[in-house]
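QA checklist item 7 of 12: single-chain prediction sanity check.
[x] sequence parsed
[x] length recorded as 372
[x] structure emitted
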Amino acid sequence: MTGVDSAISRRQFAGTLLAGGAAAMLGPGLLSGFEQMQVSLRLGIDNFAVRAFKWKAKELIDYAAKLKVDTLFITDLQAIENSEAAEKFSDVHLAGIKEHADNAGVALLVGTWSICPSSTTFRDNYGTAEEHLSLGIRVAKALGSPAIRVILGSRRDRTTEGGIEARIVDMVKVLKSRKVEAMDAGVKIAVENHAGDMHSLELAELVEAAGPDFVGVNLDSGNAVWTLEDPLQNLKNLGRYVLTTSLRDSIAWKSENGVMAQWTAMGEGAVDWKEYFTVFRQLCPHVAVNIETISGFNREFKLNDDEFWKSFPTGKPKGYEQFLAFAENGKPREPYQRPENISRTRADQNYQQTELERSIAYCRKIGLGVKE
């Protein structure tokens, strides 16, 4: 037994077993009500929350270990690559990262960017969309991540030729082209609801079209607001497909032109996290809760402007009334103001680190996390 193993108490071990392997074998919806209450949801961080530090994988692992979280979700390959070598993702390099994480007692999850070739966000820095996905699958397998997180694009894709439906068709083709490869590697593909690209019901359609046996969802609670959804309803629509998460709190309020929204640290917005995680335990008890705080700015949705609705050509999305109810009682928040007495980089680092660590403390307070 290793030092990490011996440090895990009986209660922690039981929680890890149920939250991980046992629950995964049983599948969502098959736990009894009592078992759901006993699940110790693993708690982790998404590296984008502390993006201003520009940390590489081993530095992120050290930070995660310092916070005593269960998981580290590295959602961009740049943080994993070896920038000093010609072969940026060599087997030796990846094995070194995996060993570092194992020694720190931190489970790794991996992600990357757009694999939709017709998206406005797609970049060919890792080759074609298919080549990019193949690389992501290989990296995930090497690092022991059960899934590779990908995105389609952003809200801009909703107004491109053919709309979001055409972009979904293009992405499904890429996903299906790598099905055998993914299944042979034992790695599933987690598609995020990203930056207003897909409503939860559209993402569910993408998963079903590609094949839920190897494609699922990276759930982003904050991005739900950008598709005019209540975060709780977003979870209910996607919960059975969820493989990974990038969660944060949100608040919304009525504005002159429609609705204004701001992402916040956990526990400082309008999401009822007690209810949220009750539903979460019912639908995806085996999935880790990874916190991705992106706070400090306001975004307005000009619901009173006809131009805004070009992103939703078939009309108001299902659940729109629940979104309005979510914004009904919200109070306006001022955006973050960067201090003038320190550098921009240092100010951003301080702010991001504080937001994330305050969020982790809140999550522990409401009973999340396996490690003591």
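[x] summary fact logged: The CA atoms of residues 45 and 290 lie 5 Å apart.
[ ] second reviewer sign-off
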